[in-house]
Design brief:
Layout lengths: L1 E7 L7 H15 L3 E7 L4 H5 L5 H9 L4 E5 L9 H5 L7 E5 L10 H15 L4 E4 L2 H11 L5 E3 L13 H8 L5 E6 L8 H9 L6 E6 L6 H13 L6 E3 L5 H10 L2 E3 L9 H7 L5 E4 L14 E4 L4 H13 L1 H15 L5 H20 L12
Helix pairs in contact: 1-14, 7-13, 8-12, 11-13
């Protein structure tokens, strides 16, 4: 197959969504498919809206020799109107890879309305979807007010190498010393680091330490604000901003940690929860979004309502004091990991979906197609 993929910037960008896209591209190429990356430079949201008026951008997509065009939904502001101009000029179907919806992130009411309108127009302009979770599918179908054609392909969690065995997890959970927390994500508002810091500040009398693994370059203003908050709360000695890390370094960090702490991060799925579960780390996760597909409350971690800092502080205090609960959650998290597909299985599922779409599309000569639901 000849497959196009629309993204912003580089496929090597460090984020869960780009990891998903990257793993898919690697698999497709290994199967002998040709994949053409169609990239736009990163710009502000308003400037991306102007991409819809770009004749060179439209011509580039129209002239691509493809069997199917994939578009990362992150690119919706650059495509919401352009797709309608593109459709009469091409025979290939357009599918969107949806990780989560921008309009469900925290923002001001006027901006949320703008995101909602633009995102709705974009989602209505494509022929089908690749969803990273059932929760993401529900979000899309809720916005479009009806079922849509597509496939749910959960991310894999095996990127970092072999999972930790249960005996090693038992030994780690019973060791003495502070509760070792790890937060894995770029320093951006959607990840909710600020709320976690506030809860930890209420536990100054308890033994804990936190490592924050992620880039400060995506939103430098927010990252600087988090550094100031750490200083203001007097947590400099206990909170490390370690920056991005290689896969090997991240695997080592997960082996040595006790708990993944991302209680207020909104995620369409949350690959990091699955990768942490491979190392027996229970997760503090948000009840909003798709984390509940991995994290079961009081079984493989805890799900918290957005902003419930007192509840978070209480859970942390309990886990610091009761390592038997930590062990129970850790073993359950490791077993939950085993229930999910590998990256190879995920990408194979997507490729099967594409193989079904492409022959059907060749018979429709560019008209809107209907793909059997998955």
């Amino acid at each position: 197959m000849r497959i196009g993929l629309v993204i912003y910037g580089s496929l090597k960008t460090l984020s869960g969504g780009y990891l998903y896209d990257r793993k898919l591209v690697e698999y497709l190429q290994a199967q002998g498919d040709e994949v053409e990356i169609l990239s736009l430079p990163w710009r502000s949201y308003p400037r991306h809206l102007l991409d819809n008026l770009s004749s060179p951008w439209l011509d580039r997509l129209a002239q691509a020799r493809l069997d199917v065009l994939l578009q990362d939904e992150l690119n919706h502001p650059s495509l919401f109107r352009l797709n309608r101009s593109l459709r009469p000029r091409v025979a290939y179907p357009i599918l969107s890879i949806v990780h989560h919806l921008r309009c469900q992130e925290q923002s001001t009411p006027p901006m949320r309305l703008l995101y909602r309108v633009v995102e709705w127009r974009y989602l209505a302009s494509v022929d089908g979807f690749i969803f990273n979770s059932r929760a993401t599918r529900r979000s899309v179908e809720g916005l479009l007010q009806g079922p849509r054609e597509g496939v749910v392909a959960h991310p894999g969690g095996n990127r970092l190498g072999p999972a930790l065995d249960e005996e090693a997890i038992r030994i780690r959970a019973q060791r003495r010393g502070p509760l070792r927390l790890v937060f894995i994500g770029n320093l951006i508002p959607r990840k909710g680091l600020g709320g976690l810091l506030t809860a930890l500040a209420a536990l100054r009398d308890e033994p804990w330490e936190l490592a924050v693994v992620g880039s400060r370059e995506v939103d430098p203003g927010y990252a600087a604000a988090m550094q100031r908050r750490i200083a203001t709360l007097g947590l400099e000695a206990r909170v490390q901003l370690v920056g991005p890390r290689s896969d090997a370094e991240l695997a080592h960090r997960l082996r040595e940690s006790d708990l993944l702490a991302m209680p207020f991060a909104y995620e369409g799925f949350g690959i990091v929860y699955l990768e942490a579960a491979a190392y027996g780390l229970p997760a503090l996760a948000s009840s909003a979004g798709g984390a509940h597909e991995i994290v079961s409350h009081d079984e493989t971690g805890y799900l918290l309502e957005p902003g419930d800092i007192p509840r978070l502080a209480g859970i942390l205090r309990h886990l610091i004091a009761d390592r038997s609960t930590l062990l129970r959650l850790s073993l359950a998290a490791r077993r939950r990991f085993a229930e999910f597909p590998t990256w190879e299985q995920t990408a194979s599922r997507i490729r099967s979906f594409l193989s079904m779409v492409v022959p059907h599309a060749s018979q429709t000569q560019g008209h809107r197609i209907l793909v059997p639901p998955q």
